[in-house]
Design a protein that fits this description.
The chain is of the alpha+beta class and 131 residues long. The protein has one helix and four strands; from the N terminus they run αββββ.
Length: 131
């Protein structure tokens, strides 16, 4: 009634197709993992850069405050501020102050650095002119 089937008559492409699908899926998963890792690194660099900018702004504000002290008169301050609390922890601002020609005012330059000596180190600079 039923014809006898032998394994010699069966030819199929199941195994090669399965290997191909598994390989393609493995490549997709690997690519997505690398994309996720690079995205995480990018976010980390962006955060460090923003923190460095805020450190530079804070350093500039400290420099302006020192330059415009009403009690002891204007002082041009240059130095380094290290932040130890809050969002600027482990950040620093290098402030340099110099005067232009007489009557041209004071220039305060502040460079903020965060994550020093790490792969995701951030550096930003701010310059303020006081006339």
């Amino acid at each position: 009634m039923y014809p006898e089937l032998s394994f010699k008559q069966q030819t199929g492409a199941g195994l090669p197709v399965a290997i191909f699908v598994i390989t393609v899926l493995a490549l997709l998963v690997t690519g997505m993992a690398q994309l996720q890792e690079s995205s995480a690194n990018s976010v980390s660099l962006q955060i460090q850069s923003q923190r460095a900018f805020l450190a530079a702004e804070s350093g500039a504000q400290l420099g302006v405050g020192r330059a415009l002290q009403p009690i002891s008169g204007p002082q041009c301050f240059s130095g380094t501020f290290s932040f130890t609390v809050g969002g600027l922890k482990e950040c620093s601002a290098i402030v340099s102050c110099f005067t232009n020609a007489p009557g041209q005012g004071v220039v305060i330059r502040s460079e903020g650095r965060c994550g020093i000596s790490t792969p995701s180190e951030g550096k930003r600079a701010v310059e303020v002119r006081l006339l």
